[in-house]
Each structure stands twice: as structure tokens, then as C-alpha cells.
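Discussion board: Methods & Data

I've been asked by a reviewer to show the raw model output for two of the constructs in my manuscript, not just the figures. I'm not sure how much to include, so I'm pasting the format here to get opinions. Each protein appears as its amino acid sequence followed by a line of C-alpha cells. Is this the kind of thing reviewers expect to see in a supplement, or should I convert it first? Here is construct A:
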Amino acid sequence: KSVVSWTVVLDTVVKWEGLERGREVFNEMPERNAVAWTVMVAGYLGAGFTSEALELLAEMVFQCGHGLNFVTLCSMLSACAQSGNLVIGRWVHVYALKKGT
């Protein structure tokens, strides 16, 4: 399977089977793109699991070298708005301003 196929499966699993099963698929992925990371972060934020979202963000940015692109930031802001998570919402806003995204 390609990274795109894996990401489509991941998105479907997170939406229909939940985050626990989604995390299993995410962990099984041989390669992860920014969209796969965004699916998981947005899923955790939307469900109110802030600490898990922050852990993934840290891993995405610092360990894997993926930057936060415009789509990722928009997804994160949407999830923050839906969950009422102002802490991460503010962090995303500051990040976007500093990076000029």
C-alpha cells in the first residue's frame, strides 16, 4: 500500500471505528505523511484528548521533521474550535504568525 492509501484507510478508521483503532492503524503505517499526522491530531483534539494531541504534535514536529502546513493548522484550529480547546488554539495561532503561514 502507498502512503496515500494508508492515509485514506486511517481517516476512515478514525471516523468510523474510533481513535483507539485509528491509533493502531497509525502505528502500523510504514510511512506517515503530514495528512496522516493531521488526521490523528485533529481526531484527538476533536474528542477532547489534548495531551495525546500535544504528544503527537511534538513527535510530528521535533522527531519526524514534519512542519505544520496550512492544511494541518486549519484542521487543528477547526478541531480546537469544536472542542473548545483555547490553549492549543492559541498555540496554533502563535505558531502560524511566527512561521508566516
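Construct B, same format:
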Amino acid sequence: MCGSKAILLGITCVIRNAVAMTALQVAEGLQASLSSGSSIFLSSNVQYSEQITPRWDVYEPPTYQVAVKPALIEDVKAIVSIHIQYASTNKLPFLATGGGHGYTTTLGSLQNGLVLDMGNFKTMELNSTTNMLTIGGSIKSSDVTPMIQAAGKEFPVGQCTCVGLTGFTLGGGIGPYSSLYGPASDSVYEIEMVSGAGEILTVSKDQNPDLFWGMRGAGFNYGVVTSITYNVYDATNGGNAINADMTFTGAQNGTIWKIMESFVGKQPDQLSISAEINFSATSGIIILVNLLYAGPQEELDPLMQPFLDLQPSNLNISSITWHDIPSSFLYGASVQGCSVTGIEYIPYSVNLYQIDIDNLINAVNFMNTSMTLAPELQTATIALDMYAQGGFQRNTYTSSAFPYRDVVIFAQIDCFALDASATPALAQWGKEMRDILHQGSGKANLEVYVHFAHGDEGNAAWYTEHKLKQLKELKNKYDPNSLFSFYNPVLNTSSSSSIVG
């Protein structure tokens, strides 16, 4: 590894020539500053596509001239330090990526930049005695869940196995077992990172506690995370759950919403409920319902009976392991979604704080009418995830930057453009559907979980007005040059960025 003087010399060389440098010269200048285990690729190089994590979504994407795969945290520090020097001229904006799954449109404001690929940070260590899990910054949930399951432990991962666990956590991180444990960010014990000020930091409740608050819910605004240590938990129900998938017709939607509404304020912590609304060219509206219960089936049966009384056209009830939830949940839909990359996915979302039955019926009617008239819209779906609030309320509203502990349903409008010509219509439809659902949300202002956001909502919608003042103060302290401002950003008080916020 280069000594500190060599790093500074390399940085100085890059900065002094920033105005006139080509992408090749930038790459060469960076290489002189990094350890031998690091790699640099021009986007024109054939190895770029082989070595750099591909983006899952290509709708309004960022573009890059250069990719860097650092090997050590000191390499990350060197790269951030270079960009601190660039900040005044903004010659080469950059983004750190782990799983490559981020899809907000604010990422598209980064053009011709540098991607810092964290693919070399892939360590995993689980201590079953202390119930501590430490992972590197590029680990995905599918990498680590088999090890956790084998140790008789569990942890609130999301529904999609292809998502980078670090990025997932920095925005909160929600999934079926959030009903038990809250967002993944509540389970964070310690973070190792390089801040936007170029400092290597350990962040925990005892070290840099102000930043620890902000990293758990808005963490991608403050630096690059190289590792996270989590608390994990003894497996519930022997590490098994009951998964029930059901299929219903569109005509049954009002009754389905009424049943779901009956669980508001009464939902057991072991239970998560999800519904997915689809449109079939031959059958019209189809509604899939999933009940996932972290306990024995005899406890689930009475909770499930109102749905069974509707006589679903398809029913699949099975006992599964915690690790297998993504491959079983909603007929394995999340695994199917993770099996492809490079798609145009146009996301919209809204938090629902109540179940307004008439509003949801109106949304289904709008979906049925619009998709019947415009077949290009039929690839869009609506996902409604209803997690028990017991897990979220294990910690207080003020305990971290994660703001949404009282949401009844996290509603996602998932628009998939299989043909680029359908993209404008799907984007417009998704926005219209979001507006409809917002009318029944129970809140006057739009609020949305940051990882589900489209990117046009603004930072008050992502983080709430109540938390923005403290988040901006942290931005001024830990990322004063706003280097980390391309993913649904918190903008510091002096920023003149044009990014929505």
C-alpha cells in the first residue's frame, strides 16, 4: 500500500491537472494513489462490464467515465480526498455502489462521473455467542442469510435477495421480519466508513453518536461504508415460518381491503401481510395475497380464515425456513425480479397511514379501466406491504433518522417497461396512481420510504420536516462539499445543487 506522502503526491498530481485531464489520465493519476489490490477501469474497457457490478435498473441512470474498485479502506479515503479537492470545480462527480440496486431518478443527475464499486469489500463474520454479524460493504442479503440460518439466528432482511445489504440498511431497510425487529437500521451496532470530509470513522452509540443517529435512515448522505456490524437474534419458531399465498379476482378487492383493515392496530408481531395487484389481458385484475407468519400454523389458521372464506382460486400453504422466504413469498416474485438486470423500472410509492377501502377500490378501478384501454400499461403492478408496527415501535421516533414507524401500508407502484416506447406512458400512469393512493393515505403531504421513492418527491417526503434540520447539520459537518448528493439527497445549507430536495 502507498504511504500517506505518496497518496498526497498522487492526489496533488490529479488535482493540478483536473481541467485538462482525459478519463485515461484520471485513471492513471488515481492508480498512483491506491494500493496494489485496487483496480481502475475506463467505461470503454471490455473489463468494465465484467468487473463492475451492473445496474439492475436502467431508467434515467447515472453514467460513468471511470470505475474504481478499492481494496482497502485507505483506498476509499484516498478517492474521497481526491474528490474533496475536486469539489470547487466539480469536474468528476462520483457515486459509491454495493449491490447496484438503487433506482431513484436522482441518480440520473450524475453524468460522466466516477463509480466507486465496493465489490472487494465482501467479508462476512458471524459470532453466535455475542450475536454479532459483520459484513463488508458489497454483501447482498443472499450472500449472508444461509450462514445466519445455519447458526440458528435471524435478522430483518428485505424481500429481494439481490439488494446490497449496506445500502438497504442505510435507508432503514424494511421487510417481513420488520414486524418483529423494526427496520434493519435498528439492528446496527457499529459502522466503519469514510466520511465526506475524508475521515476514516468508527460510528456507534459511543463513537460519533450524532452521525450514528443519521446513518440509520439517511446514511448514504454522509460517506462510504466499508463494513457494518449488526445485532442478530435467536431464530423465531426454530427458524421456520408459515407462508400462505392466495389468488383472488379483482371483483373481490373490496372485501380483501376490509379484511386487511381489520388487522390495523391488532396485527400480531409474527405476521406480515402483502397484496400484489396485477392485470391480465385475459382475466383482468388479479390480486395475490401473502400471509407470512413466524410461528406455527395453528396460530396462523384463525388469522387466515377470513381470506380462505373468499375461496381463493389458488392456494399454497407451506412451512419454509427463514432463509427461503424470498424464494417462496408471493409465489417467488422477488426472486423472479432479481433474475434480470438492465430493465427499465419506473418506481412510485406512497406511505399509507390508514386503509381507506373506498380509495383502494377506486385505485383498482382506475387500474382496470386504464389497462384495458392501453395494453402497454399492463406490465405495471401495485404492491401493498403491511408489517406489524410492534417491531417498528421497539425504538422511539427520535432514536434514529428513520422516520416512518407508524406506516400501515408501504405502497409501491412498480412500472416495468419491457419496451422503451412504453416508458413515457408508464411513468405518467405511475404518477397518477400515486396521486390517487395519496388521497387516501391519511396525510396531507406526500410521504414515502426513501428506498421506494421515484426521486421527484423532495427531501421532506423522504425524511420528514421534523428530521431535516438535524440531518442538514450532519451534512454540513460530515460532508461539507456535498460529495454524497446523488441518492435522494439531504442538501447542506450552502448547497446550490439542482437535485430535487
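Answer (T.O., handling editor elsewhere):
This is acceptable in a supplement if you add a one-line summary per construct. For B, something like: The mean pLDDT is 91.
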